[in-house]
């Protein structure tokens, strides 16, 4: 009788320890939940950064399109990418 109750108590204790460990460290445990939430926040921040860059690039592309040509932007891009300058200009770069 004592062995049966000790065995049942031991098995119950081991199951409690196992399920407690799984609840904290398992695939769907609390620690993984917090890690995924932190990763979600970081990814959402990155997403907003990428969306803002995309918006600014879309505006730039629209300004250089055939329908709407911004001469100042075209001049700036030609100077930057092609290295074009006039003979009477001096270029000072700040990096």
Structural topology:
Elements: H1 2-25, H2 30-63, H3 71-82
Summarize the structure.
The protein has helices at 2-25, 30-63, 71-82. By secondary structure, the chain is mainly α.
Relative strand content: under 5%
Cα-atom radius of gyration: 32 Å
Low-confidence stretches: none
Mean pLDDT: 87
- Based on DSSP secondary structure assignment, what is the total number of beta strands? 0
Distance between the termini: 84 Å
Structure characterization notes:
With 95 residues, the protein is an all-alpha fold. It has one domain. It is built from three helices and no strands. The N and C termini lie far apart (84 Å). The mean pLDDT is 87.
Keywords for this structure?
95 residues; mainly alpha; 74% helix
């Amino acid at each position: 009788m004592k062995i049966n109750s000790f065995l049942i108590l031991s098995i119950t204790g081991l199951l409690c320890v196992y399920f407690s460990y799984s609840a904290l460290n398992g695939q769907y445990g609390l620690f993984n939940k917090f890690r995924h939430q932190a990763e979600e926040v970081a990814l959402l921040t990155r997403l907003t950064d990428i969306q803002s860059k995309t918006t600014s690039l879309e505006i730039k592309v629209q300004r250089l399109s055939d329908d709407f040509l911004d001469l100042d932007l075209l001049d700036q891009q030609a100077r930057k990418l092609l290295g074009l300058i006039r003979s009477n200009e001096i270029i000072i770069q700040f990096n």
